[in-house]
Amino acid sequence: MGFHSKPTTFVGHVKIKVENLERSLKFYQEVIGFDVLEQTDSMAKLTTDGKTSILSLVQPINAIPKQGRTTGLYHFAILLPERSDLANIVVHFVNKGIRFGSSDHLVSEALYLDDPDGNGIEIYIDRDPSEWSWHGEEVAMTVDPLDFENLLTTVSPGKSWLGMPEGTVMGHIHLHVSELKKTEEFYVKGLGFDVVNRYGTQALFLSTGKYHHHIGVNTWNGAGAPAPADNSVGLESFILILPNEEARNRCVSNLKQIGANVTEENNTFITYDPSGNRIVLAL
Question: Could you tell me which residue ranges the VOC domain spans (predicted)?
Fold first, then answer.
C-alpha cells in the first residue's frame, strides 16, 4: 500500500536495549518468530526475510532493568502482511501459553505483549485504507475489543506458525514523551510529519502519506517524565527512512531552525526529540 516504502517517510528499524541478550534471543526467535541475521556477544540483528533487519537487540555494559515513569519506548509495532498471519500467531501464542492483550483500532487489528525485559510489542494487521474513516485531517481510531471469532476464521488449516512471514515490516513506533507541544513541533516542523489523530490531551499520532500513524507519542508516564539512564532497558534508537538526500537535507535544516541538535557521524545523521529519544535519519 506504499505506507512503508519511498517516497513515504517511515520507521524502518528499531534498536532496543535488553538485560540479557541470550534470554531475549530465545524469546524473539521462539515466541515472536524472528531469525538472526547478525550476532556478536552484545548485539543481534533480527530479520524476517534473511536479508534486512527491522529490529536489533543490544545488551549495554552493566545493563539495568527498565525504569518506570520515564520517557522512551511505549511499544514498537510489527506489521504482518496478511490477516491470516495474525490469526496464526494467535494460535501460536495460545499453544505456547503466552499472555497477550488485543484491540480493534478500526484502522487495524492488534495484539500486545511484552518481551522478557518489559519492552512493549504490538503485532498487527492493517485494514484496507478504503475502510479507514477520515474527518478532515484526522483518521478515526479507537480501542475496541478484537473479534477473535471472526479473526480465527482466517487461520490457515493444518499450517502451524512458522515464524514471522517474509514481507513483515516495522509498522510504527509509539513513544513516551515528557510533553506534547515541543514534541509536536519537532515531528511536524522538523521532520515533516502530519498530525493525524489527537487522542485527548495526552497523545498524538503522526504520519506521512496519509497512514494512520508511523509514530505515536504520549505523556502517560507523566508530564515532565525524565529520560531513563543510558544503560537502562528500553529504546536505544529508531531509524527513519527518508525519500532521498534532498528530503534529508531539508529535515536537517528544519530541525536546526527549531533548535534541535543534529550530528553527523560517517554520513549518518542523528537527532534527538525533545524527550531524548534518539533518531537516525537514513535513506
Answer: 10-126, 169-283
